[in-house]
Amino acid sequence: MVDIKGKDCRLLAKPIIIVAVVLLVVGYSALKVKNLAIGPEITLLSPLDGTSAKTDLINVKGKAERISQIFINGRKIFTDEAGNFNEQYLLASGYNLLEVMAQDKFGRKVEKKVQLVFNGKEPDIKSPLNTGTTTATTTTLTKKLSS
Asked: Is 143 a residue whose pLDDT tops 50?
């Protein structure tokens, strides 16, 4: 029989503690290595592929994991600490292709593509390309200079 206060219990407890610590270290290391092995990941929340946009200015929203940099059609964008991004993008009239590309610190890349259609019939008042105000101002300046 093994005595609870005896020497045999102490001899049995020591290997159990060592095995438990080794299993914890191996498990933690496996989780960290898994994240490195998987590489970068992008999840696009909006816009959805094949969407017909109602305005020329859209929000590109999503989440990126395990990245060092991220781009929309070659333009670098930034994420918050949790990896979320929300960028405004100006669409051309007709067919548009958005390419969201992310790269990790090891040079591995992942890319998501979204196809959109903007019919161009309803201009967005907030759009920097809306030249209605600029034209009116230019006309007024021209009249003042002519007088």
From this structure: no
Taking the C-alpha atoms of residue 23 and residue 112, their distance in angstroms, rounded to an integer, is 38
- What percent helix, strand, coil does the chain show, rounded to 5? 30, 35, 35
According to DSSP, residue 92 is labeled: P
Rounded to whole angstroms, how far apart are CA atoms 68 and 99? 17
Q: Is pLDDT of 144 > 60?
A: no
User: What's the length of the chain?
Assistant: 147
> pLDDT tens for residues 19-60?
888 888 888 888 777 767 788 999 999 999 999 999 999 999
pLDDT, position 130: 52
Nearest C-alpha neighbor of 50 from the set 114, 130, 121: 114
C-beta of residue 45 within 8 angstroms of C-beta of residue 61: yes
**DSSP-assigned letter for residue 81:** T
Residue 14's identity, in one-letter code, is K
Cα-based distances in Å from 134 to 10, 12, 45, 140: 86, 85, 35, 10
